[in-house]
Structure formats: C-alpha cells, structure tokens
Design brief:
Layout lengths: L1 E5 L3 E3 L2 E3 L3 E5 L1 H25 L8 H7 L3 H7 L3 H22 L5 H17 L5 H5 L8 H28 L8 H22 L4 H11 L1
Antiparallel strand pairs: 1-4, 2-3
C-alpha cells in the first residue's frame, strides 16, 4: 500500500482528494486511475480539435462529459496549450508506431498504408491535424506550432522515404523530384478531406486511385 500525498485539489469521478490529505491507494490502482483519466481527456480533446478546431472548445467541453471538474484537467495539463501539444504528440506517436509496423510490407503496400490513414480519417468525417490546425497556425500557442511543424515534417519525411524506396526497387516510376511528389500526394489527400467537410463530396477514393496510378 502506497501513501500518496496530493498537493492540490483533484476531483475525478467518485474520488476526491484535497490539499494536506493523503490518499491511501495501491500504487498500481492510483497510477492506472490517473492514467486512464488523462487518456480520456486527450481522447475528447482530439475529437474536438478534429471536428471544431482548437479555439472552438474550452475545458468545460471536456469536463462535462467526463463528469469531472476543470481542476482535474489542470492537474494533468496546466494550460490548454499543454493539452493541445500533448494531443499532437500522441497522434504522431501512434503514427510512428504504425509506420514502423508497416516497414515489413512491400513498398506499394507501405504507400497504401500511408494513404489508409487519410481514408480512415475521411470515414470518420474528420480532417487530419494539419488540416484542422493549419488554418489557425498563426494564432496557436508557440508550443503547439512547434509540435505541428514537427508533425508535418515527420509525415512528409515518411512519405519521401517510401517514394525513394519505390524508385530504388523499381516498383515506382515518376518524373517529379521526390520531395515535390510527396507534396503533391499530401496536398491532394488533405484537400480531399477539407472538400468533403465543405461540400460533402467524397472524392478520396478517386484521389487514392490517381495517386497509386501516378507512381
């Protein structure tokens, strides 16, 4: 049994801790409880960013469905900027894990797996993080701008890697410089997500076919 001092008031679900109070909880239970709540907070924040945008939601939009106080969110994320940056980091961590797992596939399958991420985003009526946060980039907190730049660089870097492998193996044939080809593919996929949101036109399947045919 671990004795865990809580240095600030926290109210999460049915648990309530306050200053100068000690929570007598098994360490594993405490850590699991706090980790689960943190993940739920980021789950909702990610959904809100993808559907409404960063500036269109407040902590209240997260605390209400979780039945917790805003103070509970502040315990994990001191500022909204911290939360936004953490969400981007988590999204890119998942992306990196998925990319690494795909390295055993053929080059064409790796390219399709890259495209699949956008197709899955489209199926949920979302836009990718660059599409969701890019238009408001200049008004985002600096730490979020930093994470978004890293995300964009990582995404393009992965695609360039796939395209280079395809050219080297002879599986791909195209005339454009690799970096330019990567830009064309990413902007086409991103545009298809934004167009669906604005006009309702679902064109990602045709975009995918054109991309695969172009390499």
């Amino acid at each position: 049994m671990a004795i865990l001092p809580m240095m600030q008031e926290i109210e999460l679900d049915s648990y309530s801790f306050s200053k100068s109070m000690f929570a007598y909880l098994p360490t594993s239970k405490y850590l699991g409880f706090m980790s689960d709540t943190k993940e739920k907070i980021m789950d909702i924040a990610e959904e809100l960013i993808r559907t409404k945008g960063y500036h269109a939601f407040s902590y209240k939009d997260i605390s209400s469905p979780l039945n917790i106080r805003n103070a509970a969110i502040h315990y994990h994320f001191s500022t909204k900027a911290d939360l936004g940056a953490a969400v981007i980091e988590r999204v890119m961590s998942r992306y990196q894990d998925r990319s690494q797992a795909a390295e055993v596939l053929s080059v064409k399958e790796q390219l399709q797996q890259f495209i699949d991420i956008y197709e899955e985003t489209n199926a949920h009526n979302h836009v990718c993080f660059v599409g969701a946060l890019g238009p408001a980039y200049q008004t985002l907190p600096e730490k979020m701008q930093t994470e978004l730049r890293k995300a964009a660089k990582q995404t393009k870097g992965r695609l360039i890697e796939i395209l280079k492998l395809g050219l080297e193996s002879g599986e791909f044939t195209f005339d454009e410089p690799v970096s330019e080809k990567a830009d064309l593919i990413i902007t086409s996929l991103l545009a298809s997500l934004i167009l669906k949101r604005v006009s309702g036109d679902n064109i990602i399947n045709s975009i995918t076919k054109n991309i695969m045919a172009s390499v």
